Structures are given as C-alpha cells and as structure tokens.
Model the fold of this input.
Amino acid sequence: MVEDTYGAHAVKLPAGHMVLYPASSLHQVRQVTRGSRLAAFFWVQSMVRDDGQRTLMFDLDQAIQRVAEALPQHPTVTQLTGVYHNLLRRWADA
Done:
C-alpha cells in the first residue's frame, strides 16, 4: 500500500516485478498470505531535485505523449519535446 498526495494505492504485482514511489510517500507492506516474499530495496535520485519542477516535467511529458498519439507528425510535438529537454537541462543538477 502506497499513500501519496493523491490518496492510498494498493499494489499487488506478479513475481519479479517492482514498484517505484517517491520517498515522500508513506508505504505499508501487507502480510504474505501464500508462499513467501523475497524483497530488495534501493534509492534513486532524480536529476531534477525540486518536486514541483519534477511534477511539471511529468505533466508536460504526459501531454506530449497524448499530442504525439493524436497527431504523430504535427510540428507541435517536436516543439514541446524541445521545451521539455530545455527545462530538463535548466533544472537538472550537474
């Protein structure tokens, strides 16, 4: 169970899969009812440190994907992709 800004989300994945969530999210590990659990954990760090900037990047990326799906050859897709990469260069920790 992962709890974030948008509420609590139950996650149950097939064996061998993983879930990633921000360190700012609370999580709870439920009891194993069948079989056994082998687990590993690790931390990753985003190139963009600020959570608000990362959220904007995510929202922009989602919008770019929707436009690209609806209008694959439209020049706006290239323009928005350029904006995304320029923001990434501006906000990324060197």
Notes: The chain has a mean pLDDT of 91.
